[in-house]
Design a protein that fits this description.
Layout: H1 12-39, H2 43-62, H3 67-88, H4 94-119, E1 123-125, E2 129-133, H5 134-154, H6 160-188, H7 203-224
Antiparallel strand pairs: 1-2
Helix pairs in contact: 1-2, 2-3, 3-4, 3-7, 4-5, 5-6, 6-7
Length: 231
């Protein structure tokens, strides 16, 4: 879930080709993943079983020669997969929780891209990901807040204002996950974590922000228990 703050795109035909590849990949891969999230067992478990080794393999590739970070990267990947499964299999609103997370991440990406390209301005982390801007981060937070509140309304869960604030905060968490993977790629001297998804790069390139949000939401839900907005 990268490119949330207006990463620069190649010009001309290359730009259009890359855009078409990204759209085609999203059309092919998006519906099965969303269906797995909606249906739950066993399909979400199948998705997790496929994704986990791919994510671990890509982290190993990004951390060659840095064994400590490779242990940490593997642990982070597995924690995100476990968080995905644990949240989805919650007896109370597991499906709604994951749909909410996906909506927040998508809103962060789209809002960051649109606002970042339109407003430009100061760079967020020029040494890690030069294309990301503070305006893109603010835009992503605003769109994530709206998406989070919209999910609360659509699911009839209440807590609209508090969930809007949580959505904005999760946009920051997602951006941190994005920057974490960008830093790993920069240190490895590569543009993408892999070439699995045409037009997108590796799997980590698409789920970097999602991983961070999954882990944080799972930890918060464990800590607050019944105080979670829709437990």
């Amino acid at each position: 879930m990268a490119a949330s703050a207006a990463d620069p795109a190649p010009a001309g035909a290359g730009r259009h080709r890359n855009l078409l590849l990204r759209i085609a990949s999203a059309v092919v891969l998006g519906p099965p993943v969303l269906a797995a999230i909606w249906i739950g067992f066993p399909w979400i478990d199948v998705v997790a079983a496929i994704a986990a080794p791919v994510m671990v393999f890509e982290w190993i590739g990004l951390t060659r020669g840095r064994p400590l970070r490779r242990l940490l990267g593997i642990a982070y990947s597995l924690a995100a997969v476990l968080a995905l499964l644990w949240l989805r299999h919650q007896p109370a609103d597991g499906r709604e929780t994951l749909v909410w997370i996906i909506a927040v991440i998508w809103a962060t990406d789209i809002g960051g891209y649109v606002v970042g390209r339109a407003a430009g301005g100061a760079r967020l982390a020029p040494r890690i990901s030069p294309g990301k801007t503070w305006s893109g981060l603010v835009g992503g937070m605003a769109w994530a807040a709206l998406a989070s509140a919209g999910c609360a309304w659509a699911f009839g869960l209440g807590h609209t204002v508090s969930l809007a604030a949580i959505g904005a905060a999760l946009a920051v968490v997602g951006q941190m996950g994005d920057l974490l993977e960008s830093a790993a790629k920069r240190q490895a001297g590569v543009k993408d974590s892999g070439s699995l998804i045409p037009g997108h790069g590796g799997l980590l390139d698409r789920v970097d922000g999602l991983m961070a949000v999954l882990v944080v939401v799972a930890l918060v839900r464990l800590l607050v228990g019944g105080a979670w907005p829709w437990t």
